[in-house]
Specification:
190 residues; mainly alpha; Hypothetical Protein Ta1238, Chain: A; two-stranded antiparallel sheet; 5 helices; corrinoid adenosyltransferase activity; CblAdoTrfase-like; CblAdoTrfase-like_sf; nucleotide-binding
């Protein structure tokens, strides 16, 4: 159980923050930037939920919870120490990736194949889901960069990769099952 009695601690005033294992690192470290961007992605999901119907809202709520799991995973770098930890650290699981894949397949089954790239927009929900997609892609790039420097749970990277695909397909669903997608017309304004 998390208990936050005091919101500010002043421990970060010098530009450092604590990771989940207690280690202090610079706030601009790749790890902190990665899980900070996951938090930003979560905030964009909150905006998308303002426009979502019940079924989509429930799926987005699950994703928001997963993104908190992902942040908890990324803030704890010492996976080799997991077995020795007082409390088992929360790690992303392949089952979370599989759930996204199943949902993508189910949504995509209602859509016609694309004949052009889709521009972000259409309905308010679709536009917000495109924002979710781009922020989650940035989070994925940062996690991949982090993985070149330190160990990262492979399921965390896979999750972010599938998540951006989920947002893309969901945005098409939000655009009348793709009928109201805004399509790219190459060279239209030359």
């Amino acid at each position: 159980m998390v208990v936050l009695n005091k919101i500010y601690t002043r421990t970060g005033d010098a530009g450092e923050t604590a990771l989940g294992n207690g280690a202090r690192v610079a706030k601009h470290s790749v790890r902190v930037t990665a899980y900070g961007t996951v938090d930003e992605a979560n905030a964009t999901v909150g905006l998308a939920r303002l426009h979502a119907t019940d079924e989509t809202d429930a799926a987005l709520a699950r994703i928001q919870n997963d993104l908190f799991d992902l942040g908890a995973d990324l803030c704890r770098p010492d996976m080799e120490q997991d077995a020795k930890a007082e409390y088992p650290p929360l790690r992303m699981a392949d089952s979370q990736v599989a759930r996204l894949e199943a949902e993508i397949d189910a949504m995509n089954g209602h859509l016609q194949p694309l004949r052009s790239f889709v521009l972000p927009g259409g309905s308010p929900l679709a536009a917000h889901l495109h924002l979710c997609r781009t922020v989650s892609r940035r989070a994925e790039r940062l996690c991949v960069e982090l993985a070149t420097l330190e160990h990262v749970n492979a399921a965390a990277v896979k999750y972010l990769n599938r998540l951006s695909d989920w947002f893309f397909v969901a945005s098409r669903m939000a655009n009348e099952n793709g009928k109201a997608d805004v399509l790219w017309i190459p060279g239209a304004n030359r």
